[in-house]
Amino acid sequence: MKFIGVTGGVGAGKSEVLSYLDERADSFVLYSDRLAEKESKPGGRCYSEIVKAFPDQKLYNADGMMNRAAFAKEVFSDEKKRLALDGIIHPMMREIIMEDVKEKRTEGKYKYYFLEAALLIEEHYYEVLDALWYIFAPIDVRRERLKKSRHYSDEKIDAILSKQLDDREFRRYADVVIDNGGDFSSTKEYIETLLKN
Prior knowledge:
The chain is an alpha/beta fold. The protein is 52% helix and 13% strand. The chain contains nine helices and five strands. Helix 2 crosses helix 5 (79-107).
């Protein structure tokens, strides 16, 4: 089973690629943000550490669930707090993901295990992946998609882009670059070629 990371900037079409891969019987796709959300809930593996680091009751709903809006306000206005939260969630995610990869390899059901994570490069996943796929689309195409699908303003797009790696950095770590700037049928064809090798 090949362990493949899928990364790319906002608007490049990662979701489209991942949902196509998810439909394949020989592929398993893990969305790390969904996993992080699950493990940050009561009973999840990150939850007690989060509560210990952020004990203020106003950050939680009556049922103990994290109040996401309150947390975002608390954490994103304070770099120290953001790093503290990341320091709990990211190492635990990596541990859970690596356990899951090992388990799925043992089961032998899948040929490919695709991991989607926002910080694949920043969190050094390339050290444990069999390959890192970079989904690329030109910046003007990405902007157009974000305006059309998410109704983002130019200011919002600029703010998001300023926090993401640039094209050179993605290419520096990528084993494969998938151009998803045009018609998705060409992207699918190229993916199929990659999976045959």
